[in-house]
What we know:
The complex is a heterodimer.
Chain A: E1 3-5, E2 10-14, E3 19-21, E4 24-26, E5 33-39, E6 46-52, E7 60-61, E8 64-69, E9 74-79, E10 88-97, E11 102-106, E12 110-115
Parallel strand pairs in A: 2-12
Antiparallel strand pairs in A: 1-4, 3-9, 5-6, 5-10, 7-8, 8-9, 10-11, 10-12
Chain B: E1 4-6, E2 10-13, E3 19-25, E4 31-38, E5 42-49, E6 56-57, E7 64-70, E8 73-78, E9 87-94, E10 104-105, E11 109-113
Parallel strand pairs in B: 2-11
Antiparallel strand pairs in B: 1-3, 3-8, 4-5, 4-9, 5-6, 7-8, 9-10, 9-11
Amino acid sequence: AQKITQTQPGMFVQEKEAVTLDCTYDTSDPSYGLFWYKQPSSGEMIFLIYQGSYDQQNATEGRYSLNFQKARKSANLVISASQLGDSAMYFCAMRQWGSGYSTLTFGKGTMLLVSP
Amino acid sequence: DVKVTQSSRYLVKRTGEKVFLECVQDMDHENMFWYRQDPGLGLRLIYFSYDVKMKEKGDIPEGYSVSREKKERFSLILESASTNQTSMYLCASSLDRDSNQPQHFGDGTRLSIL
Lengths: 116, 114
């Protein structure tokens, strides 16, 4: 069974500082994909960044980057220069493939609070 | 941009009622999904569909059924609602199984069963 672990229930960071949100995963498949989503208090899930298991370089999208350490099975999200609007719930998810379909398994999430 | 629309943001129903949650996507996506989200548990997959009239059970299908008669529409049905089905329900869609494209989510339906 595939599993995603987010060990930090909550994180605090000051505006303009960088923060790392942890995610570890467990899979025996050589091919997988890792996603990070942001969920503000309004409820919608916003896709942030994707990393494929065969990607040679760590993914980056603006202020978001993914610290992908394959041997450690970790895919931590790094947010640089935090903004007040970054306060939200963050979910790590892993794609798994079945017969003719693929699904996501989500971690339990980390609540990030950014203070002025 | 992909648009996934859920019919209601908030819904209150009574125990024993049959409840329908509707989801429509406008990007011709093959796959559609229903999740429920509860505090401390993250998102859990209820059912998904990878083609019209096709459905697969997710991790927690008990007490739910689904319908996909058209490609753009995926309905979640609570046959006889119970209080333990009070939750946030999220619908999502994605392009196809081989794509690295993410799942796109609707805004969610907060369902209360009294």
